[in-house]
């Protein structure tokens, strides 16, 4: 049975959004004729546009629904994914990595691998990224249809095809320009459409004092219960969070995932590109005020029997992801319901558009131009970009239908993310900061890291190890007395990524020591020590990246101490 | 994106969207003054009215910012 029922005004608001974004695609087509315009949005964007698009590319509706539900299960621990699991990596990207990316005038992350290493690493990363993006896009499409079918009773096929067609049309017309513009609209829609849920929820439960009153410490603390995995609902340790999430997964995602970093490549100059992730970090830190607050309100109301979250016979909540739709149904009248649903739809479509625009760039530049037609003209590349946009969306639809028929396949597809990104961060780190890193070391290190992640994923899933090994591999040997119970899935994911990173990092160093590095001349502008420091002499203090990074770090520390 | 050829700045579109939605939602809020719906927990307030009003005002501000930066020709 549908959770939310729509009135005529709600439908008007939803239809208007579709008309708006498709109309924008038509309007932007005339500005996306050259390859720089289509694939890099003209490289003329301001700090605000870039940073909003940067954070919005990660702000999918699945994440909002999933982490609101996650808060119902894990409490404040979810904030780690927005704070320590994002902010240090974003600041590191802006301060240290962006000069190499932006100054080398690359179009994509695989493009950097080509310049720094060779064609092997570039193709390996381009193909794995393209496959990952299409599959993730398909999963996104499937879950979107599933969510709207469940909460609104919409027809699964109609929902999927209409949103796929809308995204395909505006990205094929306006390229990255369309993606960035709709991401900016989506950012405002999400805040105006969903933040009100938290505001009304807080008022409803008697303010912040009323919200936290009576809740167990494991639901309301960030670090206080992280000393022992049995004390917190996520089942993780503080060092698992700091190393697995705060370092490997977070840096792997925020500094090397092209879908995200591409937004900073569209900046008008290096100064703006560096500030992009730093300014975006403030927006990112604010998101728990939608997601986590709404999740805690749902938990509180459910405990008071005022919100009907589905429970099993033992009384455990089984479908926490319906928390946000239930709160929308509880607090929003007709009109605002349409706005809330449009915000979720916009989040889904923007996520789809982000995947599609990153896929068309990597395919066109790093696969088509590199391996199929090296002398392609500007006009031809834009044509290929438009065609491959449609092809990418169709492949996503096929993936969505496969996921619908075999839902267990989603576990494998979603795991691809850590197979690709965690080792890539080790490669990038060594490539940018150690000039002795060789092309052969990078290539084989990357392959070994990806294989490690893949094998550990299968080993954990199919229990190839004895139970005690789960605890050795997650650095919790003292907890092996808990066997046959194994560590939480979250702990296994974090350490799977950490091991992939360690293997890639170690093997790349060892192989590099025995193979021939590139000359200093070849590495100009690509490696620390051979790249001139960005000239900040004429930049006023208030526009300097370091200043804002320190402010951001200060806010991060304050939030962690305050909610300790 | 602001200075690219004669493209209308992104802030104009943000403002237009918020203004249109703000008008629709505030309008619904005005209707609810005389006949409030009973099926939601926030009936002690009229969120359509004041939240729609906030959207309307923010929309006007963004439209102004967008128009100000629009190329003259």
Write out key terms for the chains shown:
heterodimer, A: 564 residues, mainly alpha, Sodium/glucose cotransporter, B: 73 residues, 2 helices, 64% helix
Description:
The complex is a heterodimer of chains A (564) and B (73). With 564 residues, chain A is mainly alpha-helical. Chain A has 22 helices and no strands. Chain A has helices at 8-29, 35-40, 47-56, 61-74, 87-103, 109-116, 119-152, 156-204, 207-212, 217-220, 238-256, 258-265, 270-286, 288-303, 323-331, 336-372, 378-405, 409-433, 439-462, 467-473, 489-513, 545-562. In chain A, helix 5 (87-103) packs parallel to helix 11 (238-256), helix 7 packs antiparallel against helix 18 and helix 18 (409-433) runs antiparallel to helix 19 (439-462). The mean pLDDT of chain A is 83. Chain B is mostly helical. Chain B has one domain. Chain B is rod-shaped, with a radius of gyration of 16 Å. The interface between A and B is medium-sized, with 36 and 31 residues.
Write the layout of secondary structure elements.
The complex is a heterodimer of chains A (564) and B (73).
Chain A: H1 8-29, H2 35-40, H3 47-56, H4 61-74, H5 87-103, H6 109-116, H7 119-152, H8 156-204, H9 207-212, H10 217-220, H11 238-256, H12 258-265, H13 270-286, H14 288-303, H15 323-331, H16 336-372, H17 378-405, H18 409-433, H19 439-462, H20 467-473, H21 489-513, H22 545-562
Chain B: H1 10-34, H2 47-68
Helix pairs in contact in B: 1-2
